[in-house]
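tool=predict chain=A
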Amino acid sequence: MKRIIPAVLAGLLAVSAPLAAHAQLDAAALLRAQQRGENTNLYGTNPFETQDEEGELQDTTKKERRIRKPLESYFFNDSIRALPNFVYHVDREYNRVKIGPIDTALTDFRIDYPFYEKGVGDAPIGGLGQASIPLDYFERPASFDFGFADPYHVYLYRMENVPFYNLKKPMIRFTYLESGQKRYREENFHVMVAQNISPSTGFNVNYKSRSTRGKYDWSRTKNHNLAVGFNHTGKRYSVHAGYINNHIERQENGGVVGEWAIVDTTFDMATGVPMRLSEAQAKNVYRNNAFFIEQSYGIPLAPVTERDFSIAGLPAVFIGHSFEYNAWSRVYTDYNVPYVNERGHKDDAGNFVPDTISYYKNWFINPLETRDSTYERVISNRFFVQAQPWDRNGVVGTIDGGIGIDVHTYSQFSLGDYLTGKSTKENKTSIFAYGSVEGKIRRYVDWGADFKFYPSGYRSGDLSLGAHIALTGYIRQRPLILQGSFLQERRSPTYWQEHLYSNHFIWSTPLDKEDETRFEVKFSVPSMAFEAGFTEGVISRKIYYDNDSNVAQKNGSVSLTSVYARKDFRFGGFHLDNRVLLQWSTDQEVVPVPLLSAYLSYYYEFWVVRDVLRLQAGLDGRYNTRYYAPGYNPAISQFYNQREVEVGNYPYVDLFVTAKWKRMRIFLKYQHVNMGLFGNGEYFAVARYPLNPGMFKMGISWGFYD
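tool=predict ok
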């Protein structure tokens, strides 16, 4: 490790005789420690120090070989600093970050659809870039005000998931996956560029393009997402800033005219399947621009010495500010062209008779065509204080408090606006206070509690209370973790749930606040790839969209019970990964969920060439029991609780081969390999929206670290 610089010792000797004597003793002790080969670095390991060809640290006493200042941020402990690269996300309300690994491993690389990455996955309306809803009710995102974009939650960049990196070397990662013929191709493109200017300062650019040209008629989708980030995490001052652009264009085909078009009829191409809105040329376009900056400054309450690598181990107070500008818009268009269901009904002789049907019942503004425009802007300011009574990992590690104000602007093009040519804007303000406390008892207990309250303004009376605890025991240094959490929340309906004026739907009805109580218990053994959890939730006055796609509210309560288990078995190179979810709802008309959902992945992994080429080959399968799955309505961009068609009991199986050759990952897959071989033929996850037919996919992901 690095030597103590003689010039520093000389400076200490010049201060006073007692200090000089003390410094000489320390220098002698350090010299003896160095001779024994011990670590004498007062600041911990500095990964930015230069090394010679034999791995020995070079002489740092020369002026031309100045040591780069190490990463001293209180956010990161020694084990995190020792990582060659890591990624993290910032908390928009608290002075905290969430750290994770950079995705360069072969694990889960075969899962190319982002809505399948977590748990048992989502129920999608189709393929890449298109809307989806989690099968696990408790994984569904809490609706932000612009709920029209909720179905695209897995694609969107938000302040909470913009990545920031700390890298020892510049990194570029390029990913390109494609499938199908050029005319119907799916394309998944991702590029990431990140670099640290210094150990504490860096920037990055992430761009993702997920799109399909249309496996089915009128289903072309473009989903583009950009995040640009800048970060500085110094010893006392930290700043994180980012720019976000989300752009989605989706041709809305409304699903098949009837299930018979998938189950009982064979078409040469998927584009031959008749769709309900293909002739109406329905389309949604979403645009989102956002900017945020979060800053904090640490004020230590004890003297900072040269031995203090960071202020994480000292009593300190942090003050900070978070600002966010977030603007969303959506334009929905269509033409009044009815569709024809060739098997609409049967006559007295038992023959099918076609029905001509209009997809939408109402045309309030224009009977010939639709152009609905909605807009929302939120400007958020948060001022927070964080107290660190002892050290950041103490029994009481941090105590947080803050106040915030959100200024909302809503706009929609209504009937009166057609006469003036200008849309009417409505402004609302929310004022809130929040706080939390967190701590640790060595490595055995992590605990915390938090609250958020709106005393006045648009969401006056909204309240959130939460608590969590994690107990960790060890058997042969292998952790066993028992976690528990509690949430009590009272939340107002969103603006669009109470106010909507469009060509097909109009409502302006005050809704009551929802109340939700949730308990969760989870047990996991990471070394055995095992986890099991139980969640119980009770929701009062639940807001949902009914069978006619109109907003509705239950007069009473509905209970949700969830049991989740995951166990990955390994026998040599064989992997048997299992995720199973059981759910019960006391009111399926309000919260429909399948009884059983499962994701099974069975594959063989081995070295083709040791430490050079590693390969996986196997099958992925997804399944859920039959239930009244949600439908999807393009005019309101929402999943609704239809009660006409049951969906499920169909296994959807993929055959894959993935490999990692040095820094390159290789992807080969035949999706829906069981099509026409087994299953009931009803490959739907959402009512009337068929999943993709069989198709071959391939691609690469290549990382550069120079």
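DSSP finds six helices and 37 strands in the chain. The longest strand covers residues 316-335.
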